């Protein structure tokens, strides 16, 4: 009994430590975060196999909310149960929340968006995402059909950039995969069994709570004159309606708070620059806005509200995921979906990561060095991050 408890505690402590380190070093936005997760959780620690990770990424891309945070929570759940998922979320999110609360309290008027070290961290994201894409493409697009699905996803996401384009692509790719790969003998199942210590009853409660809050909070906001309820409702609704990653939440938050007078345009832009300067999920921008409106308490409430929908949805869907993905028809659809995820990642790699980072030939040269350090020399990601930041400062001096 004690041995089991000690093993459980060891797992939980490991989850917290690893996720915190990722929360301190994962720069570059949601696509880059998936690359960091792939490198740390899959390649180095082998907490999941490649196909299970790809399936989880596909699920979280389909769900509203911050996909990278949901992937991290899902990995934490599979490693250490519900508490493991919560610790994975806390570790990955808290560093940037603290940093942005400090920015909002003291430094949000500083012009840091164009600092050299920030540009260096963008080049780190180029290397990280390129490495992740190559690894995932090798496993998830082995034949011409799936390469074509990935190409379809690239073209559509680049030419049709809306909040719903990813959802449409995933649905269509799943349909194509179902029609082409529905024969159960097409591909051997190499994925391992995934056991989730969340009952379907608890999952159902989480889903009911998600939709219940989405409906009841606006009603409560109109009947009770409370700034805290209004604040919670605005962030919860924004977190519930975001498809396509953290960048999409920024215009939603702008429309939610600037016209109401809670936040000025200058304050919003200063916070946006600060958000680009810190690691972790872009959704932590809510911590900055909440702090500007109601102090550090407002920052914490805003963080909880904007992430709560993502947590409820991932807890509500994970218990059904393993049985669904092992159904031959669902597996066939997932083969198409996984190929489309590769295309979506390549599209995001070009825009905004490449277009905002590779501005001159010297940027590409430095990104190639960082990629080689990661892919060929097998150096740990934190060294790549540190090298990128220092190199960005040197590039700014040239």
TrEMBL record:
The keyword Nucleotide-binding does not apply. It is found in: Cell membrane. It is a multi-pass membrane protein. Keywords: Cell membrane, Membrane, Transmembrane, Transmembrane helix. One of its GO terms (cellular component) is plasma membrane. The chain crosses the membrane at residues 83-107, 119-137, 149-181, 202-220, 274-293, 299-321, 333-353, 365-395. The keyword Protein biosynthesis does not apply. It holds the Pfam family Chromate_transp. One of its GO terms (molecular function) is chromate transmembrane transporter activity. Belongs to the chromate ion transporter (CHR) (TC 2.A.51) family. This is Chromate transporter. The lineage of its organism: Bacteria, Bacillati, Bacillota, Bacilli, Bacillales.
């Amino acid at each position: 009994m004690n041995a089991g408890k000690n093993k459980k505690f060891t797992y939980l402590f490991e989850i917290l430590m690893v996720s915190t380190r990722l929360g301190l070093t994962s720069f570059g936005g949601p696509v880059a975060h998936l690359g960091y997760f792939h490198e740390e959780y899959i390649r180095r620690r082998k907490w999941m196999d490649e196909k299970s990770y790809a399936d989880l990424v596909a699920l979280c891309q389909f769900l509203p909310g911050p996909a990278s945070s949901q992937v991290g929570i899902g990995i934490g759940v599979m490693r250490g149960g519900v508490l493991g998922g919560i610790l994975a979320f806390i570790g990955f999110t808290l560093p940037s929340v603290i940093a942005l609360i400090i920015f909002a309290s003291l430094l949000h008027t500083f012009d840091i968006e164009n600092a050299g070290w920030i540009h260096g961290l963008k080049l780190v994201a180029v290397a990280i995402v390129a490495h992740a894409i190559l690894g995932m493409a090798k496993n998830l697009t082995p034949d011409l059909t799936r390469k074509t699905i990935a190409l379809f996803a690239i073209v559509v996401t680049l030419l049709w950039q809306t909040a719903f384009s990813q959802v449409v692509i995933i649905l269509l790719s799943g349909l194509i995969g179902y029609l082409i790969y529905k024969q159960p003998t097409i591909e051997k199942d190499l994925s391992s069994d995934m056991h989730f210590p969340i009952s379907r009853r608890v999952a159902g409660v989480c889903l009911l709570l998600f939709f219940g809050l989405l409906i009841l909070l606006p009603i409560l906001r109109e009947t009770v004159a409370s700034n805290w309820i209004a604040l919670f409702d605005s962030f919860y609704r924004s977190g519930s309606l975001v498809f396509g990653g953290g960048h999409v939440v920024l215009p939603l938050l702008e429309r939610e708070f600037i016209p109401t007078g809670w936040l000025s345009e200058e304050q919003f832009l200063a916070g946006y620059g600060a958000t680009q300067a810190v690691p972790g999920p872009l959704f932590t921008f809510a911590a900055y806005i909440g702090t500007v409106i109601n102090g550090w308490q407002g920052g914490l409430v805003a963080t909880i509200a904007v992430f709560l929908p993502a947590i409820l949805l991932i807890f509500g869907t994970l218990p059904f995921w393993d049985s669904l993905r092992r159904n031959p028809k669902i597996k066939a659809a997932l083969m198409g979906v996984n190929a489309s995820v590769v295309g979506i990642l390549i599209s995001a790699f070009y825009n905004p990561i490449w277009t905002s980072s590779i501005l001159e030939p010297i940027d590409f040269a430095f990104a190639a060095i960082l990629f080689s350090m990661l892919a060929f020399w097998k150096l740990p990601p934190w060294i790549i991050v540190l090298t990128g930041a220092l190199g960005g400062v040197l590039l700014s001096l040239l």
